[in-house]
Write a structure and sequence with these properties.
Helicase_C-like; ATP binding; Helicase C-terminal domain-containing protein; 63 helices; seven-stranded parallel sheet; four-stranded parallel sheet; P-loop_NTPase
């Protein structure tokens, strides 16, 4: 109320001031003339009432004090207001006509009275008001508000008013009890009062706050409150709000104290809830579990006994209690709180009594097996081990039930690892710690109390044996209390007699192999086995402990399959090498291993148990055995085929044969996921088999080749991880079948002498085989070419030379075909003559279009003195780095030196090589780096002379059209500042830094140049906002910070020291050959002036599969939509994806550049929508994000697979060869969500689909119209050329011995000064090189 009153007080004061200073003075003369007599009766009456409310004799004055602390000030305010109104009246003003003011005043008066009434309303009255509101269902908000007021405002101060008996605590308690009955029954109505009723977190916080305040009230009996909550929880009309109350109740310290003081009452309430556990939400049970451990010890034990006696659900009741107790114990164990030790001891005592009850009292002995089989799991096992260790000491601690290493332990033969305890659980195996469940054995607990076992040599090993002798199959009942102690005593005697340091390792092996055999055979069987081993050791017999125990258990013929599975789980499958008929047993116990073994025989390869049955064989054996139990995949499946299964299993066993301890660790930690991967590979191999599911002899041959190369490729020992091998195997299999079988049929039928068939098989051999030095990555990459190679052969035989000739003539209307015709034979002859060179790069044939392109190149290179024209060809191309990797051997064959230019190269390398591969940006960046090194360290730079060189440009149109995006990069040069207080605020400071004499010469030679540059720097100074732009490939480039900012803060000068102009660079070559798949013919004439009047020719080479289907293969899937509203835009994109994702992989082009006025880029908005869809209809799809070259390399093999949704920037538009699975009939679908500025980029983006005569489609859903930047005539800018040439002149003639830092600064400044000149200014300069020579060289 105070806040509201203050707010309105300000409003009133504001109005008064406006009356004083605005109406009173400004308009007083006018008012006095027109209103000689006015009425203010109503307003003054309201003001008088307000003055009375705040007077000393007001009856409710004391009640107002709880709301407004400054009553006297409020009264003075309204007295002053009355005076102002009187003055206003004398001047002719009628305050009653200020209706808004009067209305506010009335509202204020009513609000004060109403809140005064409410402030004095007690909880008894609130109870009554709630009771009145209950019948009306529409008053939820009102009831919720009353409950909140009752808790937050009234309790405990205003429970009821009775001046004669103010301390009637009994009556207060009754009122409070009635109130929290309403609180519990109508708690959900509180949500209606919240500002955002759908904010669940705010609602939970509100309920917790209200309940906490309620429980802090002096007159509340928490036991009564808890009883009410209990009744509500087990009733049919409980709700989510009651679950929240119970959950928060379990976190309340006052409740803990109440439970400790009234344990007997609470435990009965707990039982009441547990008896209704089937209809109580499990969350409620979990909330109660923490409270149960606040009971005193007697009540805690009584509660558990009652749970057992009533046979309440172990899963729903006892397990949650046990889990919470273990969780609390572990938390206190790791806590540094002062009370941690006390709390831990209390928990330990409760658990100790609980374990004593269930292990000694016959009525509850059955709980031991329930604990073992239904309660102990991987989550609580570690905590259980801690509790047992603290209760029973070293006898439990010595069991070492902790995670063990996969490597050999000391001298022990057996590998310590994890064990599955029961095959039937279907969960595989878990860590050793889970074996703690077997402590819950009546006789093991009994043995923990045998005092005579404390004094024994080899105490740790003996108690491990004692534990594992009790881990018998509990279905084989052992019940002989009298004999048990005698048996254990005899075991102690024989162990003590034999054990020593020399046989310690053998006893460890005995423990480890017994661990593998956990829960197998009876107590007596296990005891006799241990006794037998001890006897052999006593007799000094030569034998392997592990083999002997394994033989003993296998001889029992109980759970043989389980034993083999256990050996695999523990990476001990190799122990079967010592067992007679071990291979037969492995086959008998695992039908899938038997299948793999049978297939080996068909390949004349018998499984060598000595060399092949290693511990690494454990993973595939285990996984295949689990698969053999799965009806979807085993011989009970309707799709099962033994021959096919043999192939599948042979491959699976090779791929999943682990090679390192890290493989084992990864497998053990992610066994369920690895099992899924195993199934995926199973399905991949089946796809391969199904692909060749035909009696055709060629199909069988190809299938057998595929299987052979996979088996051979994974047969030798490799360093690759299990994950890498599995992923690669699936990719390789997909590559092996990513072509059309009808193409094979066509190739074979293309000639009758069998030559084409041999070519085809040679192609398969070349691509499929893993060569001796191939890494897995290289082999996988090599196999990805199979589809293209098959298609290449198909087209070669399908489309004859005559077809190409016709296609070419249709595309090119001039006489250029004569050039092809005259040179074509020379190309063929040279190809044949140098077949060995082409073999090195795996080229067996040239397509007719390749021969045609080479013929044109021959013509223009053959007589270079005559043919000075530049040659531009429209044809599909490759990538520089990739092509150089492929062609190095080819160049070497002819004695040519070649190199790929990287940032690690040097300009000297250019002079030493005949062929240089490079992308332009790297080449120019290398020049800049060496130029910087020249200036700083005086190292000479070797600028290549390209005047007699031929420039071969891939994607030449982009290199030319996008040359304006080629940035000039700044470098940072240290400056020597004599006076560190220099602020560089004046030209004088700069002249001092760069030598006044030099700057004077610049000013003389180039008038105004320095002033112009200085003014530009001053204008930029202080602007810290760094701008960015996005180039044609979607890469964002940052502009540098202003020059003066860097100079002042870092004492570094930032300059473009090596000015490079791409167009000038191109024009310097003797001849230019350009290739592109995206150039438009009408743009060619615009390049003419670039090459200094040298003429250029342009030809279009048709694809080797022809032009007939090019247009029809790529279809537009929608009428292009321009949608301005972003939500509608995103909705349309989602709809398009939903329509296509089940039939086609989708590649979405999105703009990643964030405009200044936007929170996120289109790319980010679409990415967020895709993530939402991933939770719904796209849940089974693979989401791929492409923003960099690295992303492309990592994901290129996934983009064309059905189920892939790829979101990419336009970086993927250039050169990315996306292989679409041949089973995708409609091909890859492109979704344009924007248009790039330049048409050539759009063409490149469009070129990602319908490649290699495949089907493809695209759709366009954008926010702006398709308007491409018009291609202007491309010419060399005279200014850029002069600066570029001047820069080259400087670096070519730089004195290599110079390390003058002043020279470096002078040059970099001069370079910057030149860039400020206009074209007309620089055109007037004729002796630029002379000036450079005089001043710098």
């Amino acid at each position: 109320m105070t806040q509201f009153f203050d707010k309105n007080q300000n409003a009133i004061v504001g109005k008064v001031r406006r009356l004083k200073y605005s109406e009173f003075y400004a308009d007083s003369e006018y008012i006095a003339i027109t209103h000689p007599s006015v009425s203010t009766v109503e307003t003054l009456h309201v003001v008088d009432e307000l003055v009375k409310i705040f007077s000393d004799d007001y009856p409710e004055k004391e009640k107002l004090k709880s709301l407004i602390s400054t009553i006297a000030s409020a009264r003075l305010l309204f007295v002053e207001l009355r005076n102002v109104i009187e003055k206003y009246k004398k001047l002719g003003g009628n305050i009653d006509k200020q209706t808004n003011f009067l209305s506010q005043l009335k509202n204020l008066k009513n609000l004060i009275k109403d809140n005064a009434r409410k402030s004095t309303q007690n909880d008894e009255e609130i109870n009554k008001e709630i009771e009145d509101q209950i019948p009306d269902e529409k008053n939820k908000n009102k009831i919720g508000d009353l409950i909140i007021r009752g808790v937050e405002k009234k309790i405990p101060n205003f429970i009821y008013f009775d001046q004669t008996d103010f301390n009637d605590n009994k009556k207060k308690s009754e009122i409070i009890k009635k109130f929290y009955t309403y609180f519990i029954n109508y708690v959900s109505y509180i949500r209606e009062t919240l500002e955002d009723m759908f904010n669940d977190n705010a609602y939970r916080l509100k309920l917790n706050s209200l309940q906490s305040k309620l429980l802090k009230t002096k007159y509340v009996d928490i036991t009564d409150y808890f009883s009410l909550i209990t009744s509500k929880i087990i009733s049919d009309n409980r709700g989510y709000s009651h679950e929240i109350l119970l959950e928060k109740l379990a976190e309340n310290e006052m409740v803990y104290k109440s439970i400790a003081d009234n344990s007997n009452v609470y435990y009965k309430n707990f039982i009441k809830i547990f008896q209704n556990s089937k209809k109580v939400d499990q969350k409620c049970i979990e909330s109660l579990t923490k409270l149960i451990f606040k009971l005193n010890q007697d009540s805690f034990i009584n509660l558990n006994k009652e749970v057992f006696r009533l046979k309440l659900s172990i899963k729903l009741v006892f397990k949650p209690i046990y889990d919470k107790g273990i969780e609390l114990y572990v938390t206190e164990f790791d806590s540094f709180k002062p009370t941690a030790s006390k709390n831990r001891n209390e928990l330990k005592e409760k658990f100790a009594r609980l374990f004593t009850v269930i292990s000694t009292e016959t009525e509850y002995s059955h709980i031991l097996s329930l604990l073992r089989d239904s309660v102990i799991d991987e989550k609580n096992a570690n905590g259980t081990y801690k509790v047992l260790s603290d209760i029973y000491g070293q006898r439990i601690k010595n069991l070492s039930l902790i995670k063990t290493d996969v490597s050999d332990s000391g001298k022990s033969i057996i590998k310590k690892q994890v064990q599955n305890t029961e095959k039937s659980d279907g969960k595989g195996f878990s860590d050793d710690i889970i074996n703690v469940k077997y402590c819950f054995n009546k006789y093991f607990f009994k043995s923990l109390k045998y005092e005579y076992l404390n004094d024994i040599n080899g105490f740790p090993i003996f108690f491990q044996l004692l534990f594992y002798v009790h881990t018998y199959d509990h279905k084989l009942i052992y019940d002989n209390e009298d004999k048990h102690e005698t048996d254990i005593q005899n075991l102690k005697i024989s162990f003590s007699r034999v054990y020593n340091d020399d046989n310690n390792a053998q006893f460890k092996d005995l423990v480890e192999i017994l661990k593998v055999m956990i829960n197998i055979e009876s107590f007596n069987f296990r005891l006799n086995c241990i006794t037998s081993i001890i006897s052999k050791l006593d007799n000094k017999e030569e034998f392997k402990v592990t083999t002997e125990v394994l033989k003993t258990f296998l001889a029992g013929k109980i759970k043989e399959s389980e034993i083999c599975l256990r050996l695999a789980q523990s990476f001990n499958i190799h122990l079967m090498t010592d067992i007679a008929d071990g291979l037969l047993k492995l086959c008998t116990c695992n039908s899938n291993f038997k299948s793999a073994n049978e297939y080996s025989k068909t390949l004349n390869r018998n499984f060598d148990i000595e060399s092949e049955l290693t511990s690494s064989f454990s993973i595939p054996y285990y996984l295949s055995a689990k698969l053999a139990d799965d009806k979807k995949y085993n011989n009970k499946s309707s799709n099962y085929n033994e021959k096919n299964n043999q192939i599948v299993m042979s491959i699976l066993f090779k791929v999943f044969n682990c090679s390192s301890d890290s493989d084992k660790k990864m497998f053990l930690e992610n066994k369920n996921e690895i099992n899924k991967e195993f199934v995926k590979l199973f399905e991949s191999v089946n796809r391969l088999i199904k692909f060749y599911d035909n009696d055709n002899a060629i199909n069988k041959d190809l299938r057998n080749k595929s299987v052979k190369y996979i088996l051979n490729g994974f047969s030798r020992i490799h360093e690759e991880s299990l994950t890498h091998r599995n992923e690669s195997a699936r990719i390789i299999i997909d590559n092996f079948i990513n072509y059309k079988l009808e193409h094979i049929t066509s190739i074979v039928a293309s000639n009758s002498d069998g030559e084409s068939k041999r070519e085809m098989f040679d192609t398969f051999d070349t691509v499929m085989q893993r060569r001796a030095n191939d890494t897995l990555h290289e082999w996988t990459k090599n196999t990805s070419q199979l589809g293209d190679k098959v298609y290449f052969l198909y087209c070669y035989h399908q489309y004859k030379e005559e077809k190409f000739d016709q296609w070419y003539k249709n595309l090119n209307k001039d006489s250029s075909f004569d050039k092809i015709k005259s040179e074509r034979q020379s190309v063929k002859d040279e190809f044949k003559l140098n077949s060995d060179a082409f073999d090195l790069i795996k080229i067996k044939k040239l397509q007719h279009n390749q021969v045609g392109a080479l013929a044109l190149i021959y013509h223009y290179l053959k007589n270079s003195s005559e043919n000075q024209e530049n040659l531009f060809i429209k044809i599909g191309t490759g990538q520089a780095k990739r092509d150089h990797e492929n062609y190095q051997k080819y160049y070497r064959y002819f004695g040519f030196k070649s190199m790929y230019c990287s940032l690690k190269s040097s300009t000297k390398d250019f002079c030493d090589n005949d062929v240089i591969y490079s992308d332009l940006e790297t080449y120019l960046h290398l020049l800049r780096n060496e130029g910087y090194n020249t200036l700083i360290n005086g190292v000479s730079i070797h600028l290549p002379d390209v005047s007699n060189a031929v420039l071969i440009m891939d994607e030449f149109d982009s290199l030319i059209l996008d040359s304006d995006e080629l940035c000039q990069y700044i470098y940072y040069f240290p400056v020597n500042v004599q006076n560190h207080n220099t602020r560089f605020d004046t030209k004088e400071d700069m002249e001092q830094l760069f030598e006044k004499k030099f700057i004077k010469k610049c000013k003389t030679k180039f008038p105004g140049i320095f002033d112009k540059w200085w003014n530009e720097q001053k204008e930029k100074d202080g602007n810290e906002n760094r701008k960015t732009f996005q180039n044609s490939l979607g890469k964002e480039i940052n502009y540098p910070k202003p020059f003066l900012n860097r100079l002042k803060n870092e004492k570094e000068a930032s300059f473009v020291h090596f000015y490079l102009d791409a167009l000038t660079f191109y024009s310097k070559f003797k001849q230019v050959f350009g290739f592109s798949g995206s150039i438009a013919e009408d743009n060619m004439p615009k390049f003419e002036k670039l090459f200094s009047g040298k003429s250029s020719v342009f030809y279009k080479i048709p694809p080797f599969f022809g032009t007939d289907k090019l247009t029809e293969n790529r279809t537009l899937g929608n009428i292009p939509q321009v949608i301005k509203n972003r939500d509608d835009f995103l909705e349309a994109i989602g709809k398009e994806i939903r329509q296509r994702y089940q039939e086609q992989p989708i590649l979405i082009f999105a703009d990643s550049f964030k405009k200044e006025n936007e929170e996120k880029s289109d790319y980010d908005y679409i990415h967020a929508k895709l993530l939402e869809a991933k939770n719904t209809f796209l849940k089974d799809c693979t989401m791929i994000s492409i923003k960099s070259e690295e992303d492309i390399n990592k994901n290129i093999h996934k983009i064309g697979k059905l189920g892939s949704i790829t979101l990419a920037t336009r970086i993927i538009a250039r050169g990315a060869d996306i292989k679409v699975d041949k089973n995708v009939e409609k091909g890859l679908h492109l979704l344009f969500t924007y248009y790039p500025e330049k048409e050539n980029i759009y063409i490149q983006m469009l070129g990602r689909t319908a490649r290699q005569d495949e089907k493809g489609s695209y759709s366009e859903i954008v926010q702006k119209e398709k308007i491409f930047v018009k291609v202007q005539e491309v010419t060399v800018n005279s200014k850029n050329k002069k600066i570029h040439d001047a820069t080259e002149y400087f670096y070519r003639n730089f004195p290599s011995s110079s390390t003058n830092t002043t020279l470096a600064l002078k040059w970099t400044l001069f370079s910057a000064l030149m860039q400020t000149l206009s074209n007309s200014e620089i055109d007037k300069i004729n002796d630029l090189e002379k000036f450079i020579k005089e001043e710098f060289l």
